[in-house]
Amino acid sequence: MNQARFRHFGEANRDEWALIDDRFRDYVNDAPRRVLEHLHRLAGDTHGYPVDRFEHCLQTATRALRAGADEEMVVCALLHDIGDDLAPANHAEIAAGILEPFIDPLNAWMIRHHELFQGYHYRHYFGLDRHAREQFRDHPAYERTVRFCDDWDQASFDPDYDTLPLEHFVPMVERVLTRAPFGGLPPIVEEEPRS
Ligand SMILES: [Fe+2]
């Protein structure tokens, strides 16, 4: 059997769930490859910026790495804008959603809020309050989010910067995204459950 035969979950048995679980774990383990494939979609159109989003992501990760950030933070830097093409209106949610099961909740918060924090550098050009991030000054992730945006994210639009290639970061992404996810299903039970 390489495929379940049930027509709805009420007909499913343990063996079918075991098969699906097996296939799902392979699928999960392949997620880093698919995530990086998607990151490549950010290459090409610069949308008017000095570099395209792919280059920007690589540069942000390179700066984080060279500043001594830990591996998890470097991966956050690499993937923080991966939602740009799918969800331009709330792109930070996409990266936060992808990374959240595998990383420190404070880093997930940082990714989720990086757009507002980054806005310190441009919101006033649009008539908005550039200091809006100050509402989170007492949050435990405030300092790291400011540092992320000020030192690495907003600084990474330099076409002449010595940016590391994606290959440099692939093993890091593989290690972080194949951690045991928070909230994942435990191993399947040995026998058919009673009910
Ligand atoms: Fe960015």
TrEMBL record:
Residues 49-164 form the HD/PDEase domain. It comes from the Bacteria. Coiled coil: none annotated. Pfam families: HD. Signal peptide: none annotated. This is Peptidase. It comes from Halomonas halophila.
